[in-house]
Please model this.
Amino acid sequence: MSAPEEMTLKVIAHIRTAFPTKFGIPRQSGLVDSLRGEVIFTPEYRNADAVRGLEDFSHIWLVWQFSGAVRDSWSPTVRPPRLGGNTRMGVFATRSPFRPNPLGLSSVKLEGIEMRPEVGPVLLVRGADLMDGTPIYDIKPYIPYADCHPDAAAGFTAQTQTHRLQVECPPELWETVPAAERDGLRLIAVVLGAASGKARFQAATTLLDYGFSHFESAEAELPADAPQTLPVRRGVTDAVALTYAAPGRYLMPKGEGGTLQAVVELPEGLTAPIAAGQTVGRVTIRNGGAELQSYPITAAQDAEALSFGYCLRRLAESLILQN
Model:
């Protein structure tokens, strides 16, 4: 029986990143390790058993769709940016998004897996090169002995080199950058290619005026009733204190600062043992229906599990005090 010429792929998840469009995304995964993302499964695949054991791997592969580059046709050759965009190479010799099947493959660092009541398991990753909302078709563990080939030939990509520059800006130079502060909002304006210093100053002034006229600085405050502790089941203590990261300030369109909302997501209780610093919930900053940022809520202290040995030790201590 011959294999079918076509097949249908199911989207199992989407990734949330800081890139609402394809512009500015790193060309390859891992180039910017500080970039964080969250892989959120679609309802059919929000099953904790599906990621059982994945937490033991440091890196994973993501198979995804170039959702911003889907075309009805394809070309056998493309112009890789790595070669300056002037030389054509075979599409299958490149990682161009313009392919017969617009599939991408990225290796990302797995920082952790969080269980969230509303969406199930969420994969926290770093180094992703994906646009926000990119559909993901599959997830596989990165296995060093099979996936790492230090002696592999790099093809045409070896013709160019990556140079890392350390940029140091003296304080006195920063003082020359046009900046202004009004009502707690500080903006800077950088103008390149001006004909003269006067033209640069006028352009910077125009930019700053536009910024102050159209934007404001807003802070998302935690709800007044945000829990400061959570009850603990089967622990030596009845509750554990919580630590919230301080909400940051956000640049918002004028008049929309008051629409910011900090949504606290916590379970009804925890089960011991619990380690200090362990993530137990999240705070999500929303502006209307859009999610701007989220950060973890952690346990402020350890909560040891109640055990027979602990009970026996407490009984012995009690008897000693009585005598």
About this structure: DSSP finds four helices and 18 strands in the chain. The helical segments are 144-147, 171-174, 197-214, 308-322. The longest helix spans residues 197-214. The mean pLDDT is 84.
